[in-house]
Amino acid sequence: MNKQQKELAEKILKLKNEKRALLLAHNYQRPEIQEIADYVADSIGLCRRAQQEKNAELLVFSTVNFMAESAVMLNPDKKVVIPAKNAFCPMAAMLPAEKVKLAKKKYPDAAVVLYVNTLAEAKAMCDVCCTSSNAVQVVNSLDEERVIFGPDSNLAWYVQQHTDKEIIPIPQRGFCYVHKLFSEGDILLAREQHPDAEVLAHPECKPEVQCIADFIGSTSQMYHHTIESPKKEFVIATETGLIDRMKREQPGKEYIPAYSEAICSAMKLNTLEKIYLALKNEEPTVTLPKPIMKKARKAVERMTEITGR
Ligand code: 13P
Ligand code: SF4
User: What is the pTM of this model?
Assistant: First the structure.
């Protein structure tokens, strides 16, 4: 951290204590934010922490909008603020509620499982949500033989490899533009340059990338894998914020980005300055219309029931 960041960080920590607030940050946040956060995790980790949190009066969610909305759903009595109010995940926008409605009409016998990276209106129309860390478990827990799954077609492909059920992706080609940047060529080149390295990829990567990776998992699953693995070198195919965390918290191993420009601009909209202002002014708050909130909450709660946390 530079001098200016340190001063701001101190002000944030002081205010956070005074207000009994909790700062939760996703693994893709800027390193200076991760450093002062109370908790850094993947999307299910943040959901769970928000659900378990009993003492904090204010939750500052340094994430993208859908993650903060999930926190509101699980914690309707708490005030949730997001530092960058325009931090929207473009993949979530690929699945408007109308498309879910049409798919339900077309496949009335199918269950609907939506990735948490979705708009609240779409979540309100599904049976259960999932994250990248539990998508297979959620799908396999269902009675239905066919499952409408969205919006990420790469995660849908990953789930299809681990289930006997029929997965129907909606939309046909929903994707994360950051994970789409990784190519088979990047991985093959990294393998050539680092023959001893293990290759870790997020299930939002394209099938051809997933097929040549050694380990597929959510951001926190990748993080824990590098701790548990006896290997010393890792090629990482996900947003570079996770690599910042690995380098800071587990020095002594080498983490090589599979593509160094894989940066999520929505995640990076959060800054120390915006966190300070969000804490001070207790806004922008994240709120949802009651009817949507009620239905969407059921889908998120059902996910946490299935995964047992
Ligand atoms: P994780 O649940 O793996 O943290 O993924 C969230 C996300 O937005 C990945 O792009
Ligand atoms: Fe959305 Fe991709 Fe950014 Fe995750 S990395 S928030 S899926 S755009």
Answer: 0.96
